[in-house]
From TrEMBL:
<dbReference type="GO" id="GO:0004519">
    <property type="term" value="F:endonuclease activity"/>
</dbReference>
<dbReference type="Pfam" id="PF17917">
    <property type="entry name" value="RT_RNaseH"/>
</dbReference>
<keyword id="KW-0238">DNA-binding</keyword>
<dbReference type="Pfam" id="PF00665">
    <property type="entry name" value="rve"/>
</dbReference>
<keyword id="KW-0694">RNA-binding</keyword>
<dbReference type="GO" id="GO:0003887">
    <property type="term" value="F:DNA-directed DNA polymerase activity"/>
</dbReference>
<dbReference type="GO" id="GO:0004190">
    <property type="term" value="F:aspartic-type endopeptidase activity"/>
</dbReference>
<dbReference type="GO" id="GO:0046872">
    <property type="term" value="F:metal ion binding"/>
</dbReference>
<dbReference type="GO" id="GO:0015074">
    <property type="term" value="P:DNA integration"/>
</dbReference>
<keyword id="KW-0479">Metal-binding</keyword>
<keyword id="KW-0460">Magnesium</keyword>
<dbReference type="InterPro" id="IPR041373">
    <property type="entry name" value="RT_RNaseH"/>
</dbReference>
<feature type="domain" description="Reverse transcriptase">
    <location>
        <begin position="1"/>
        <end position="67"/>
    </location>
</feature>
<dbReference type="GO" id="GO:0006508">
    <property type="term" value="P:proteolysis"/>
</dbReference>
<dbReference type="GO" id="GO:0003677">
    <property type="term" value="F:DNA binding"/>
</dbReference>
<dbReference type="InterPro" id="IPR041588">
    <property type="entry name" value="Integrase_H2C2"/>
</dbReference>
<keyword id="KW-0255">Endonuclease</keyword>
Length: 743
C-alpha cells in the first residue's frame, strides 16, 4: 500500500497496513483527495469493502484513537474494557494490564506516579497467585477512573502561544505541555488572557528519578524536570513562532539563564537548553495544580518500583506479534496476503495439464510444488524477486543469498536465470557494494620517446612550509618538478602555489627550454594551472602538445609521482628543524637524484643526458679509471640503450600490473557506474556512503581506456574517466537511492 500511495503519504493520506486515512482542511479539498486515492487504487486493481468505508466524517476511529478537528481522545470501547478490567491475580495479569494501559499513558496526568504502587508488585516477580495490598488496589481503582476522566488532547499548533509546566518531588519529575487556544466567546469576568483564550493540554509526561538523580539538590531536581521535559517534547518546541513559557514553582530557576557560576552538571544542561527559545517564569506551588498534584503523595517511596517507559504510539514503531498457536496456523492466514492474492489471481487460468507437467498441485487456491513452494507466474516474477532481494527484510543479499531466499518460498522454471539477471542489474547493490571482480583496464604504458627532452612530464609538490630560495630574493612554498621521459633527468624549481600559468611558463623558459630546447609533448595532471586557457594558448604558441592525465588516474604520470617522493625524502633528511631552508637545498637534491642509476634505464640520468658523469661533490676517489665510462659506449649508443631499457621496463611493469586486472572495454551508449572515492558530498561519513554513482551513459571513447560520461553539468566533475574508475552494469535499472550531488 505504501508503494501504491507513496507520493500521497503525509500530504493528505496516512496508511497503516490496509487502513487508509484521508484528511483535508475542507469538504472541497476532501472530495478531490478521496477521488485521487480511489483512482490510484483502481489503477492498481485494489478493492475497498464498502461496508468498511466511511466518507466525509468529522471524527473517525484510527489505530485505537478517536481523531477529530478538536484533537485526539481514547477509543470509548478501549476505555470501557479498562474500566471493566478485573483486579489482577498474578504477575502476568499485572503485566497485561500495564501493557494495555501504557498505550494510552499520554492521556493520563502523572501516569508514572499513579502506577508506582502497582509496579512495586512486580519486584521479584513471584510465581503463582498474588493478592494486591490495599494501597495497590486503591492505585488500580484510581488508574481505571483516570481513563474515564481523561481530557481531549488537542493537536499541537506551532502558531499558538505554548506553555510548559514542570515540577519535581523527591523521586519524580513531571511536566504538562499546553497551548492557549482562542475561545469562541469572551468572558468579561475572566482574567485578560482567559477572556479570549483557554489553556488546553497537549501532552502529559512524568517519570521516576534514577537513584543518582534522587541525590540532587532541590534546585537541580527542578532543573532536571525542565531539561527532560524539553527533550521529551523537542519535536514540538523546535521551530515554533514565538518563545514558549516555562512555569515552575522554584523561583531560583527564573535566574538560571543569567546565572554566572554554574556547576559542571548545570553547564551541561545549559548547553542542552541552548537550542530552545523559552522564558522561565515563577508561579507559586499553590497556583500550579497540574504538575504538582501528585508530587506530595505518601506512596512515592524510593523503592517503589521502576519506571515503565512508553513512547507515544506510532504505527511505524510497532509490529504485529502472534502467539505460538496462531503462528503455527499462519499457513491458513496466507490468503490475506496482498501478494498471495495476486498470485492466486495470476494463476487462476493456469492450464491443469501444464500444472501437472510442472509437478504442481492446487491447495486453497494456490498452485504448490511437491515441497510446498508457491508457483509464481511470469508476470509476478519481478515482485517475488523484489521481496527476496530489494526489501528491507532481505537487505540486498548476493547471488547465493537471493537464490536461497527465493527458493525458500517460491518456484518457477527459470528461477536461477532470473535471479542472476535481477542481482546483476540491481543499481542499489552496484552503488553500495564493493566490486568483487578484478579492476577493469589493463595498463598501457607510454612508449619511450625518440630523443632527449622530446617528451617531458611535469607536476607540482604543494603544501610545503615557506622557504627562502638560495639567492635570498624570493620565498617559495611549492616545487615544480620536470622530468625528461627518455633520460629521466630531473629539474626541480622552487615556486609558489599561487603562481599563474604565465609564471610557470616563465620558469620553464628560463630553466628548461633555454637549456634543452622545446619539447614536442608535455604530460601533466589536471592542476588549475595546466587546464587554463592561458596555458593552452602558450603551448599552442610554442607548438607543444599538452597531454593531461585522466581524472583520478595518476599512473599516467607515474615517473614524476615517483620523483616527487624521492625529492620529499631528500628534503626531509636534510632540512633544518624549522623546515625553512628546503628551497636552498633543491640544487643539491637535483644533482644527487640525477647521479643515481635509474632502475628503468640502468643508466644515471646525468650520464644519459650529458654523455658523461659529472664529478660528485665533495670529491670522491674515482671508482674506475678516468675516462673508462666514456670509452664503453658513445652517447648515441647510450641513448639507444635507454630506449630499449625503458620499453622493456614498461612491458614488465604492464605485465605485473595487468596480472590482477581484467581487460574490459565499453562502447558508447553503454551505462556504467562511477566510483565515488574522489567525489566529495555534504554527507557526514564516507563509510556509509555509496561506493558508486550512476549509472551514466558513455558518450564517447577517448582512446583505448578512457571514456567521456554523460555526467550532470552541475556536478563540476571532469567527465573523462578511465576504466579503473568504472564498474559495468548492463541493463541497469533505477532501483535504490541515488548518489547525493558532489560539492
Amino acid at each position: 500500500m505504501n508503494e501504491v500511495l507513496g507520493d500521497l503519504l503525509d500530504v493528505f493520506v496516512l496508511v497503516y497496513l490496509d487502513d487508509i486515512l484521508i484528511f483535508s482542511k475542507n469538504r472541497e479539498d476532501h472530495a478531490g483527495h478521496v477521488r485521487a486515492v480511489l483512482d490510484r487504487l483502481r489503477a492498481n486493481r485494489l478493492y475497498c469493502a464498502p461496508g468498511k468505508c466511511e466518507f466525509f466524517q468529522d471524527e473517525v476511529e484510527f489505530l485505537g484513537y478517536r481523531v477529530s478537528n478538536r484533537g485526539v481522545t481514547m477509543d470509548p470501547k478501549k476505555v470501557e474494557a479498562i474500566t471493566e478490567w478485573p483486579e489482577p491475580r498474578s504477575i502476568h495479569d499485572i503485566q497485561v494490564f500495564l501493557g494495555f494501559a501504557n498505550f494510552y499513558r499520554r492521556f493520563i496526568r502523572h501516569y508514572s506516579r499513579v502506577v508506582v504502587p502497582i509496579t512495586a508488585a512486580l519486584r521479584g516477580k513471584p510465581k503463582g497467585a498474588i493478592e494486591l495490598s490495599a494501597e495497590q488496589r486503591d492505585a488500580f481503582t484510581r488508574l481505571k477512573k483516570a481513563f474515564t476522566t481523561a481530557p481531549v488532547l488537542r493537536h499541537f499548533d506551532p502558531s499558538l502561544p505554548t506553555v510548559m509546566e514542570t515540577d519535581a518531588s523527591d523521586y519524580v519529575v513531571a511536566g504538562v505541555l499546553s497551548q492557549w487556544v482562542p475561545n469562541a466567546e469572551e468572558h468579561a469576568a475572566s482574567p485578560p488572557r482567559a477572556r479570549t483564550h483557554t489553556l488546553h493540554p497537549i501532552a502529559f509526561w512524568s517519570r521516576q528519578m534514577v537513584p543518582a538523580e534522587r541525590n540532587y539538590e532541590i534546585h537541580d531536581k527542578e532543573l532536571l524536570a525542565v531539561v527532560k521535559a524539553c527533550e521529551e517534547w523537542r519535536h514540538y518546541l523546535h521551530g515554533i513562532s514565538a518563545p514558549f513559557e516555562i512555569l515552575t514553582d522554584h523561583q531560583a530557576l527564573e535566574y538560571f539563564q543569567t546565572k554566572r557560576n554554574l556547576t559542571r552538571r548545570q553547564a551541561r544542561w545549559g548547553l542542552s537548553l541552548g537550542e530552545f527559545d523559552f522564558r522561565i517564569a515563577y508561579r507559586p506551588g499553590v497556583d500550579g495544580g497540574k504538575p504538582d498534584a501528585l508530587t506530595r503523595r505518601s506512596d512515592l517511596h524510593p523503592n517503589a518500583g521502576k519506571h515503565y517507559s512508553a513512547a507515544e504510539p506510532d504505527p511505524a514503531n510497532h509490529a504485529v506479534l502472534l502467539d505460538r498457536g496462531l503462528f503455527a496456523k499462519s499457513n491458513q492466514l496466507l490468503p490475506a496476503s496482498e501478494f498471495l492474492q495476486d498470485v492466486i489471481r495470476g494463476t487462476a487460468s493456469l492450464d491443469p495439464g501444464k500444472a501437472e507437467s510442472l509437478g504442481l498441485s492446487k491447495k486453497a487456491g494456490v498452485w504448490l510444488t511437491a515441497q510446498g513452494k508457491w508457483y509464481i507466474p511470469p508476470a509476478l516474477v519481478p515482485r517475488a524477486l523484489q521481496l527476496s532481494h530489494d526489501s528491507p527484510a532481505a537487505a540486498h543479499p548476493g547471488l547465493r543469498g537471493t537464490t536461497v531466499a527465493t527458493q525458500r518460498q517460491f518456484w518457477w522454471p527459470t528461477l536461477a536465470q532470473d535471479v542472476i539477471q535481477h542481482v546483476s542489474t540491481c543499481s542499489a547493490c552496484a552503488r553500495a557494494k564493493s566490486p568483487r571482480h578484478k579492476p577493469y583496464g589493463f595498463l598501457r604504458p607510454l612508449l619511450a620517446p625518440d630523443r632527449p627532452w622530446g617528451s617531458i612530464t611535469m607536476d607540482l609538490i604543494e603544501g610545503l612550509p615557506p622557504s627562502t630560495t638560495g639567492d635570498g630574493k624570493a620565498t617559495a612554498d611549492s616545487i615544480l618538478v620536470v622530468v625528461d621521459r627518455l633520460t629521466k633527468y630531473t629539474v626541480a624549481l622552487p615556486t609558489v602555489a599561487t603562481a599563474t600559468s604565465k609564471e610557470h611558463a616563465r620558469l620553464l623558459d628560463d630553466h628548461v627550454f633555454s637549456h634543452f630546447g622545446l619539447p614536442d609533448q608535455i604530460i601533466s595532471d589536471r592542476g588549475r594551472t595546466f587546464v587554463s586557457a592561458v596555458w593552452s594558448g602558450i603551448m599552442e604558441l610554442y607548438g607543444i602538445r599538452s597531454s593531461l592525465s585522466t581524472a583520478y588516474h595518476p599512473q599516467t604520470d607515474g615517473q614524476t609521482e615517483r620523483m616527487n617522493q624521492s625529492l620529499e625524502l631528500y628534503l626531509r633528511l636534510y632540512c633544518n628543524y624549522q623546515q625553512d631552508n628546503w628551497a636552498s637545498l633543491l640544487p643539491r637534491a637535483q644533482f644527487a637524484l640525477n647521479q643515481r642509476t635509474s632502475a628503468t634505464t640502468n643508466v644515471a640520468p646525468a650520464v644519459a643526458n650529458l654523455g658523461f658523469s659529472p664529478r660528485p661533490l665533495p670529491d670522491l676517489p674515482a671508482a674506475v679509471p678516468e675516462g673508462a665510462t666514456g670509452d664503453v659506449v658513445k652517447h648515441a649508443q647510450l641513448l639507444e640503450a635507454c630506449q630499449r631499457n625503458i620499453n622493456a621496463a614498461a612491458e614488465a611493469m604492464a605485465k605485473s600490473y595487468n596480472r590482477s586486472r581484467v581487460d574490459r572495454s565499453f562502447q558508447p551508449g553503454e551505462e556504467v557506474m562511477l566510483r565515488t572515492k574522489h567525489l566529495r558530498t555534504d554527507r557526514p561519513s564516507r563509510k556509509l556512503d555509496n561506493r558508486f554513482a550512476g549509472p551514466f551513459k558513455i558518450l564517447d571513447a577517448i582512446g583505448p581506456r578512457a571514456y567521456r560520461l554523460d555526467l550532470p553539468r552541475r556536478w563540476a566533475v571532469h567527465p573523462v574517466v578511465t576504466a579503473l574508475a568504472q564498474s559495468g552494469l548492463s541493463g541497469a535499472g533505477q532501483r535504490g537511492r541515488g548518489f547525493p550531488e558532489p560539492r
